[in-house]
Write a structure and sequence with these properties.
The strands form 6 sheets. An 8-stranded mixed beta barrel has the order 22-23-25-26-27-28-29-30, surrounded by 4 helices. It is built from 27 helices and 30 strands. 45% of the residues lie in helices and 24% in strands. The longest helix has 32 residues, at 112-143. The chain is elongated. By secondary structure, the chain is of the alpha/beta class. The chain starts with a strand and ends in a 10-residue tail after the last helix.
Length: 701
């Protein structure tokens, strides 16, 4: 690459000699610029890229060291060789001010001129490269978050980066020359004893090392920081140790995060209760203690009965708040030595430890049931949620955590089968029921695909005229191996596992479609009734789903009657009112099923846009029953209340002539039951529509 040299001199002889020397050199070529004055030289510097300057300091417009100072000010990065006469004093002064050297007049034609130029250019390039590397290293070290401290062989600080200044609260200038032990004193986090700084070991052994865990840096203001470090020796070009460098960082946040992550790994994120992993560990410890002491421990597996309905209808945010409210109540019901754990969803497990009697678990369960039965007030909603609890006891029901939890879970399902809102102790025979339940659930999930479901229809009768006014659609399951499966065996399981949602939609669609077919064939059927489960009713897409089915089947909304139980409506009365009003605005008839068995108040009953009250069959069966004192009193009260509220009253489960006569006397409008007809298939029901009920005292099978 061609080097450009600027020759500054007003002496023509010197200029020519220098030009000739540069042109004749073998390591050229050189591109030569000339200037006869300082001002002309500065112009050349500003106009061209110059690699080196040969300058006479005595010029027409400037003399002496002032000439050099002006040149250096305008070209600080360009190497300058001054041209000196016999007196070298000025040349030496220029070198002190920044010149790279000088050439003596009388020797300008020598080969030393290009050699000197080459040397100063290379030296300047090396200096520039070293400078750039130094700046790059400085910027890099000041950009990283780790603190860096360097020391000499005596262990005195000779460098701090910005992070180290912030960490130690020492500035670089203040720390330089100070012992490393003064700038970064360290102690052990637990013993609080002073620790040896690793720099001393590195300087002695010439080997890299690290700080031991639990090291605390005492900052200049006395505050403390947990740190981790690595310390290494620094070697000179000959490989000899010349000092040490320590790189360290603040791990205070990391330690806090580690503690937090360890907590999260063992606790439920929503309720902050111990999770399954931590519970299993505590059960194992409790078993070991109980074995040594000869005592008992109990596992209570609890599931919230109505949580899924609330979660589906009011949203997950409300559901989460309800779970937190449940958590507070559960925690308040147990001792500090016990453990309340959330397994996921709405399932909780309680470990009751160090019991001298297994019966203490029953007392705890009763306390939990009572506490949870009190309404929860969430987002202006009064939410009712009960629970089913299964109990297993060590050592009779298992000797390890997995078995105890599994058996308590099995007992919990038995509590659900017995009506919910109760507790059951595990019994070995429950495992048979648990297996049966799993088998039923598995078969339920494929029954719809295999077309194993069908509907039966039970007529509703006008008690004055004897005419069929409508029908109730009832789900039936014909299993290919088991035969007819009673609804009581599978409806509850379908609700628990969620299968009831697609099955319920199939029932509604099939009932509406069949009713429309009867109407299209000229048969007179005013309404078709379909039971709606709590799981369906609380789904956010329930109303839209009903509307879609009516459109698809072409059934007028006024011909559809939806039956919802009283207890379902009262689980969240405000939400129920909103859903019922949407259905009512569509023209759908609404009925309260099993009326009288729930806990509704008359104030809410008056707010529900209900068309029909269905008297529960248990009250109908009481009519004429000498074993009870009621003798139809409740049925009479319901009929009278319905009539006063201008609501149609239907009595279900009418089986005896005495019951029928009583209902007629009380002005009950409609009835259904075996005295009129059992539930029958679509073809048989069509015959009933065409021929009517043969006789009110004849049971149609």
């Amino acid at each position: 690459m061609t080097q450009r040299i600027l020759i500054i001199t007003n002496d023509l002889t010197d200029r020519v000699s220098l030009q000739n020397a540069l042109r004749q050199t073998s390591d050229g070529p050189y591109d030569i610029l000339v200037a006869g004055s300082l001002s002309e030289a500065i112009t050349q510097i500003q106009k061209h890229k110059v690699d080196a300057i040969l300058a006479d300091l005595y010029l027409p417009d400037s003399e002496g060291i002032a000439t050099f100072d002006s040149l250096f000010a305008n070209a600080p990065q360009i190497p300058i060789l001054t041209l000196s006469g016999d007196d070298e004093t000025l040349a030496i002064e220029a070198v002190k001010s920044g010149a790279q050297g000088y050439l003596t007049k009388g020797h300008f034609a020598s080969y030393l001129v290009p050699q000197s130029l080459r040397n100063v250019i290379l030296r300047k390039a090396v200096e520039e490269a070293v400078y750039i590397d130094k700046v790059r290293a400085e910027i890099t070290l000041n950009s990283i978050s780790d603190a860096v401290i360097g020391t000499d062989m005596a262990g005195n600080v000779d460098y701090l980066n910005v992070a180290a200044e912030h960490m130690t609260l020492w500035t670089r200038e203040e720390a330089r020359g100070q012992p490393i032990t003064a700038v970064m004193p360290i102690i052990h986090s637990e013993s609080r004893q002073e620790k040896d700084n690793p720099v001393a070991m590195v300087l002695q052994q010439d080997m890299a090392t690290t700080l031991t865990p639990g090291t605390i840096l005492i900052r200049r203001d006395g505050s403390e920081v947990a740190i981790e470090d690595s310390t290494a020796p620094i070697h000179d070009s000959a490989g000899n140790i010349a000092g040490a460098v320590m790189v360290f960082h603040d791990i205070t946040d990391a330690k806090v995060m580690a503690v937090k992550m360890a907590h999260l790994a063992q606790h439920d994120f929503l309720t902050n209760l111990p999770n399954r992993a931590l519970l299993n560990d505590r059960i194992a410890q409790a078993i070991g203690l109980a074995k040594r002491r000869g005592s008992f421990l109990s596992i209570l597996f609890m599931d919230l009965d109505n949580f899924k309905h609330i979660n589906d209808s009011l949203g997950h945010a409300t559901g989460d708040k309800l779970l937190k409210s449940v958590t507070e109540r559960l925690s308040a019901c147990v001792r500090n030595s016990d453990t309340v754990s959330r397994q996921g969803g709405d399932e909780f497990v309680i470990l009751v430890t160090d019991d001298k009697s297994a019966e203490n678990a029953a007392l705890t369960a009763e306390k939990l049931l009572k506490s949870l039965a009190t309404p929860h007030h969430i987002n202006k909603h009064e939410l009712h949620v009960t629970s089913s609890i299964g109990i297993s006891v060590y050592p009779s029901d298992g000797v390890d955590a997995e078995t105890l939890i599994k058996n308590a879970d099995t007992a919990m399902y038995q509590a659900k089968d017995k009506g919910r809102n109760n507790y059951q102790f595990f019994k070995p025979e429950m495992n048979v029921r648990a297996v049966e339940r799993q088998v039923i659930e598995a078969n339920l999930r494929v029954a719809l695909v295999r077309n194993e479901f069908f509907l039966h229809y039970q007529p509703k009768i006008n008690l004055k005229t004897g005419e069929i006014t409508g029908a109730e659609a009832l789900l039936r399951w014909q299993h290919p191996q088991w035969g007819m499966v009673p609804p009581i065996r599978f409806i509850g399981i379908a609700e628990d596992c969620g299968v009831i949602v697609p099955v319920g939609r199939w029932v509604l669609r099939e009932a509406c479609a069949q009713t429309r077919r009867w109407q299209n064939s000229g048969l007179d059927i005013a309404t078709i009734s379909v039971n709606i489960s709590a799981v369906e009713f609380r789904r956010q897409d329930f109303v839209e789903g009903v509307k879609t089915i009516l459109i698809e089947t072409g059934l007028p909304p006024t011909c559809l009657q939806l039956e919802i139980t009283e207890s379902v409506l009262m689980r969240n009365a405000e939400s129920s009112i909103a859903i019922l009003e949407q259905l009512k605005n569509m023209g759908i008839q609404l009925a309260i099923d099993d009326f009288g068995t729930g806990y509704s108040s008359l104030s809410y009953l008056n707010q529900f846009p209900i068309d029909v009250l269905k008297i529960d069959q248990s009250f109908v069966h009481d009519i004429g029953n000498n074993k009870t004192d009621s003798n139809g009193v409740i049925a009479s009260a319901v009929i009278a209340m319905g009539n006063s509220l201008k609501q149609k009253v239907i009595a279900e489960g009418v089986e005896q002539e005495e019951q029928l006569s009583f209902l007629k006397e009380q002005d009950c409008e409609e009835g259904q039951g075996y005295i009129f007809s059992r539930p029958v298939g679509a073809e048989q029901f069509e015959k009933l529509l065409r021929q009517g009920i043969p006789s009110q005292n004849t049971v149609l099978v």
